[in-house]
Design a protein that fits this description.
single chain; mainly alpha; Four Helix Bundle (Hemerythrin (Met), subunit A); 5 helices; 0% strand
Length: 142
């Protein structure tokens, strides 16, 4: 069986490759550390909220019939619901941070997924997990 010759488009890598990061390894390390710090803080927040939920459940179980009031029960339920929502939000944030860390490892960090252009360093300092540039964000809002 004869070996198939590669066409010029196959040889040149016709499959589109993601653009590489505009940042040096030192800058990527800076962003990685920034993201890891934010991730650490977010996971600590999640753990703290989880402990608050456990305390809230224990408190509800220890209430006697004489100290129980419907308004208190409603307030407690609302507080638990608020904690669940805040935990979900923090977990989503951790997911964004994890994806940013993957982009750093893949050397695609700092490239807008909409325009394909580099994201401003100042924007990444403020929102290190962002995937889009200010230009793309403004277009989304229209």
């Amino acid at each position: 069986m004869a070996a198939k010759k590669k066409t010029s488009s196959e040889a040149s890598g016709a499959t589109a490759q993601a653009p590489t990061t505009p940042f040096s390894d030192k800058e990527l390390e800076h962003f990685k550390q920034l993201i890891l710090d934010k991730r650490h803080n977010a996971t600590e927040d999640i753990e703290r909220m989880h402990l608050q939920l456990e305390d809230s459940r224990e408190q509800a179980e220890n209430d006697s019939a004489y100290s129980f009031h419907m308004a208190d029960a409603g307030t407690d339920a609302m507080e638990r619901e608020k904690l669940y929502l805040m935990m979900a939000r923090q977990q989503k944030f951790v997911g964004y941070l994890d994806r940013a860390l993957e982009r750093i490892e893949n050397k695609t960090y700092g490239i807008c997924k909409v325009t394909g252009k580099p994201i401003a360093k100042e924007r990444l300092e403020a929102v290190p997990h962002t995937e889009i540039s200010i230009e793309a964000k403004l277009k989304q809002k229209k």
